[in-house]
Amino acid sequence: MFADLHTHTRFSDGTYTPEELAAQARQVGLGAIALTDHDTVEGCPRMAEACAGEGLDFVAGTELTAEQDGSEVHILGYFLAIDHPRLRAEMRRFQQVRQNRIGAMTERLQALGVALTAEQVFAVAQCDSPGRPHVARALVQAGVCRNPDEAFDRFLKQGRPAWVPKCRVSAGDAIALIHEAGGVASLAHPGLLRRDELIPALADLGLDGLECLHSRHTRSQTRRYEEIANECRLLITGGSDCHGLSKGRPLIGTVKLSHHHFERLRDHALTTRRRAPHTASP
Ligand code: AMP
Ligand code: ZN
Ligand code: FE
Ligand code: FE
User: Fold this and answer.
1) Ligand 1 centre and the CA of 157: distance in Å?
2) Which residue's alpha carbon is at the smallest distance from atom 13 of ligand 1?
3) Are 204 and 180 within 8 A, CB to CB?
């Protein structure tokens, strides 16, 4: 077992720095790791350097928030040319949406009598791609909630009073953007999405892979998604979705993709890139 292809750092809502994440990756015996911070590739240069220092194979990636048939879907992009101009421009737009959303969420909280400002959340987040976990941490820091879970349950979950929907690109546009930047696209955690009927449509839109292995998938879910991947001719991907410690332990490396599936994904990225030579440096 070899690769963890779903991880977050402080460049979005993870708690590790790239250096800490790379050190943990080596400690748990990984051979390769992908950084997939939400709607950003800002952490990739530092992560690449840290991985080189630890002797790990590094994959530049991201996790884009997108929409398909009324549901929020997360599209993972791998082997990205992180300096691709349109990728950078689109991500700046996604980040602006996230920053505006923090303001909308704190306004809702204030209307509920919770004195939390957007500035307090930005001070906790200290990144361009803030999200609900940062609001949750700020609510804990302000003494409003005992822990982030309570913050989600009381205020931040879909349907709770401070929840604000995110404007999202269509899944087709997200997949096309990843391809344009020389990358391959995989649907994140289908077991959390629970809309399996969308997978064939996403495959028709050019999706390359399916995240069959995920820390919140059961064994039977993993098996089922591997079958669906085969039926839809999608590559199998997998990762822990590590945001830092989970129940006191690092989540990184708890899900590992085999070397075989990792190589298939990389080969596919290289083939795609040859077909679109204008997109990227190797
Ligand atoms: P956002 O992108 O701002 O909508 O935030 C989504 C992130 O919040 C996910 O990637 C998870 O890390 C985290 N999250 C979502 N739901 C929960 C929950 N119920 N409890 C704790 N964290 C959550
Ligand atoms: Zn996250
Ligand atoms: Fe996700
Ligand atoms: Fe994630």
Assistant:
1) 8
2) 133
3) no
How confident is the model over 25-56, as pLDDT tens digits? 999 999 999 999 999 999 999 999 999 999 99
User: CATH says 3-84+177-275 is which class?
Assistant: alpha beta
CATH number for 91-156: choose from 2.50.20.10, 1.10.150.650, 2.170.150.70, 1.20.1560.10: 1.10.150.650
Q: pLDDT, tens digit, for every residue of 95-130? A: 999 999 999 999 999 999 999 999 999 999 999 999
**Mode of pairing for the β-strands spanning 71-78 and 184-187:** antiparallel
**pLDDT at position 93:** 96
Q: How far is CA 250 from CA 63, 84, 101, 173, in A?
A: 20, 32, 29, 33
In the chain, where are the structural domains located?
Answer: 3-84+177-275, 91-156
What pTM value is reported for the model? 0.95
Distance 215 CA to ligand 3 centre (A): 11
Ligand 1 nearest atom to the CA of residue 132, by list position? 3
The count of residues in the chain is 282
Q: Is 189 in the pocket of ligand 1 (CB under 6 A)?
A: no
